[in-house]
Automatic annotation (TrEMBL):
GO biological process assignments: proteolysis
Domain of life where this protein originates: Eukaryota
Keyword Disulfide bond: yes
Swiss-Prot/TrEMBL keywords: Disulfide bond
InterPro entries: Peptidase_S1_Elastase_sf, Peptidase_S1_PA, Peptidase_S1_PA_chymotrypsin, Trypsin_dom, TRYPSIN_HIS
UniProt-listed Pfam families: Trypsin
Domain Peptidase S1 residues, every copy: 25-110
A GO term, aspect molecular function: serine-type endopeptidase activity
Cellular component per GO, a single term: extracellular space
Protein name: CTRC protein
UniProt keyword annotation of Disulfide bond present: yes
Length: 110
């Protein structure tokens, strides 16, 4: 895994911890910690702190896929892996990585 502190369990579709699946989405339950290791938090820098803006999916060791409406060229972003609680800043097992490059689909019309 190319990210410092990242576990090899962050693989394509291979959860380190088996998820507990149910049909609920609205009013759902918290996920088992680390059961969706490819899920990331896309965060932007604002007034000296980081704020969650969108989720995304780790699709390759250094590539994240998210929705185009989540991206603004005027913002600074980071990707956080291994996050269970977005309200906790220094969560054990989470890794924050700066975004080197953003590619927005050429047909996206904001």
């Amino acid at each position: 895994c190319p990210f410092a502190g990242c576990h090899t369990a962050y693989g394509c579709g291979q959860p380190a911890v088996p998820p507990q699946l149910s049909g609920r989405v609205v009013g759902g339950e918290d996920a088992v910690a680390h059961s969706w290791p490819w899920q990331i938090s896309l965060q932007y820098s604002h007034s000296g702190s980081w704020s969650h803006t969108c989720g995304g999916t780790l699709i390759a060791p250094q590539w994240v896929l998210t929705a185009a409406h989540c991206i603004s060229s005027s913002m600074t972003y980071r990707v956080v892996l291994g996050k269970q609680d977005l309200s906790e800043d220094d969560e054990p097992g989470s890794v924050a990585v700066g975004v080197e490059k953003m590619i927005v689909h050429e047909k996206w019309d904001s």
